[in-house]
Amino acid sequence: MKSLFKPKLRIRFITFIGYSLVCAVILILLVFQLNLNLNHKSFLGHVDTKHEIQDWWHTIVKNSGSPDINVSIKAHDSFNDLQVLTIEPLDASQYDKYADVIVSSSSISKAAQNRNNFNELRLIIIKNGSSLNRFHRHITRFDMYSEENAKIVSELLKDMATQPILHVEQKTGGTQLKLVITYQNKMKALFKPMRFPREQQTLPNHFYFSDFERHTAEIAAFHLDRLLGFRRAVPVTGRLLNITSEIFQKTDAELMKTSFISPANNLCFHGKCSYYCDTSHAICGQPDTLEGSFAAFLPEESERKIWRHPWRRSYSRKKKAQWESDNKYCEKVRRDPPYDEGRRLLDLIDMSIFDFLMGNMDRHHYETFRMFNDSFTIHLDHGRGFGKAFIDEMSILAPLLHCCQIRSSTLKTLLDIHNGNEPLSKSLKNAMSNDPIAPILWEPHLNALDRRVEIILNGIRNCIRNVQHAKDEIEETSEV
């Protein structure tokens, strides 16, 4: 035993133990990954990405200083097979093969359409009014705003974050507390308060319909929608409020009746709503400072139509929706208006991609503007997004995966993001960096975006292969 502690032998012994531990860790991780892969074969299930260790496995081995262990690093997939399908127009052979999957953007070209906005359709806009009024004037049937009107959007975000608050009232309806904020010139915003820290995720035993809303999800959704080129979400900003001077002194007695001082000496209130408005679900300041999201109101003069989402979940603890077990569900959806023609089905597929990136499962209805023929689908209410950073809920992509169809422009945007110099996570983080309550998202939620972009592209690739395989089988049968 004494010889064991001679310097040379001691170094060899420590090195041997170190390499043994590294090998043991790698073996455990391999078994762990294999086990998870066996448990996640359902494409419309969910993928638990905590087992995705390849990226940081290389770092562990590299830092161990071992030159003898070779670890393969996953090569970047540029999806060249998909990139060629975004070049318009497709040649004849490609068109015959892929036109059902990749829908040409030229078929719904904005330039070929009458781009009327609200003002041209005689919606009453207050002359020299607020930034919200100017924003309303530039809404078209194609999008909420254009990048040419970016200055107006910036002004609106600044005003919602800084203008004095004149009045506060509780929004009626809904399962959780929301406040209607009124500024000067009758400008209004919808306030969603902070409930918990950014790193707090959806509780494992909570259903999607019992999850709390996050004010940060609303802010991040607006910026994500803009980065994806959809521009169908209303502008949203964060803001810090003083509960006493900016809420209680501006509201009625009903909201004040629900206020109290918590055991931690923080000022709290809970308001009145369907489910989560009681002392155990109260909104509390620190001690009376509260942050939240402020979403711009849409024009009160414009009528909006509410539609039941065809891929709506059951909102039941036991039952499943029809689409969750019917592989031909999309064929049934396509038979009926408004999904049998126009942009609506493609809009819902865009929305499913948008929701999947956020992890938002709470999409039971959607809205459109009545005054526009074939209006774009409005992206509203994203408070239950960004709740699970390590789980990718594949069922959110059901419209895309069931219908196997996507706009060429959407596919091109995803490919540009995936192959660009800056990942989506960094672009979104930079876009939100100037928000008054930045940082907005927990870092794992940002990292999940890059992983999910690749998942979407793989799903599209599989769709194309499946469609082509089905066509080949039909051709072989007809030849026989």
Name the features.
480 residues; alpha+beta; five-stranded antiparallel β-sheet; three-stranded antiparallel β-sheet; 15 helices; 14 strands
Helix and strand run: HEHHHEHHEEEHEHHEEEEEHHEEHEHHH
Q: Give the class from helix and strand content and strand pairing.
A: alpha+beta
Write down the overall mean pLDDT.
84
Unreliable residue stretches: 34-43, 50-72
Rg from alpha-carbon coordinates: 26 Å
How many E strands? 14
Sheet-strand content, in percent, reads: 5-15%
Assign an overall shape.
Answer: globular
Number of domains: 2
Alpha plus pi helix count: 15
Helix content: 25-40%
Largest sheet: 5 strands, antiparallel
Span between termini: 81 Å
Oligomerization: single chain
Q: Strands of the biggest beta sheet: in what spatial order?
A: 3-4-5-10-6
Report on the architecture of this protein.
This protein has 480 residues and is an alpha+beta fold. The protein folds into 2 domains: 88-109 and 303-316 and 326-479, no CATH class; 131-296, no CATH class. 38% of the residues lie in helices and 12% in strands. The protein has helices at 7-38, 54-64, 80-83, 92-98, 131-137, 150-162, 215-227, 243-247, 253-256, 329-334, 344-358, 398-403, 408-419, 424-432, 443-479; strands at 46-48, 102-103, 167-170, 179-182, 188-193, 236-242, 260-261, 267-269, 283-284, 289-296, 304-308, 365-369, 391-393, 406-407. It has a 5-stranded antiparallel beta sheet, with helices on both faces. Strands 7-8-9 form a 3-stranded antiparallel beta sheet, with no helix packed on it. It has a two-stranded antiparallel ribbon with strand order 1-13. Mean pLDDT is 84; it is low at 34-43 and 50-72.
